[in-house]
Amino acid sequence: MKILISGSSGLIGSALVRSLEGQGHEVMRLVRAQSRGGEHAVRWDPAGGRLDRVLLEGVGAVIHLAGENVAAARWTTERKLLIRDSRVKSTELLASTIARLAKPPRTFLCASAVGIYGDRGDEVLREDSPPGTGFLADVCREWEAATEPARNHGVRVANLRFGIVLSASGGALVKMLPPFKAGVGGVIGSGRQYMSWITLDDAVGAIRHTLETERLAGPVNVVAPNPVTNREFTRTLGRVLGRPTLFPVPAFALKMALGEMAQELLASQRAEPAKLLASGYTFLYPELEAALRHVLGASARRATGAAAAGGKS
Question: What is the pTM of this model?
Fold first, then answer.
């Protein structure tokens, strides 16, 4: 199948491209910079609303993963607009372009996030749970709504609501590791807030499963089946690293440092992958401790291999 992917250089996108190409799919990369993507690149300008629909002819599926990093900088008014527009405007452009095709792709998979549920305490959140409130919830709601033109054109659309993706190659876990390895990690805020997580391996596996499973459409929670509280996550990561976790980060300190973003980091989302489980997806790493040992063990093995290769040169 010919598959068009945006965000192909990101954490999930780069791993997904390798996986799909390994399966024999032809992957086209949707890129903005002229120098990126190689011969299989399709150029677009989401901010300017430019995408030549001719370039989408013959594509069997579109997977849209691009979006500005939410945690890259403190949220100013301008930063929040960039976060929103990078998701909503790009999705509107893709969906409207797909809707103008005589032969549209069969499937459009678009990233979203469990942030759509807002701060929900210990409530179990499935795909039919209503959206919550807050900046990220509002962004996610608009993001998912922007796919409607493609859905109305008869395309199967799935909104992939990602939790925290665990990888030693990037993302939230990499930012957590330095203080934890130094023995100064600890719970954030009360520690009672739930964290919905998934390994990078399972995130890629879930995307491929959704791509291949025709009955999966609408919102799909891309999270492991066993979310944990921040306190449990902290203890488990400390145990895996063999380090103490005695230095909490009070909520007021986080709010002073990060402003409005802190409220979202302290939000509790106990999401369940109800649709993935019902459709037969089998998680490689459903439990947190095994997941962290796999992720961090793979990182250590890569580092050892690189060191050994360097010693032989």
Answer: 0.92
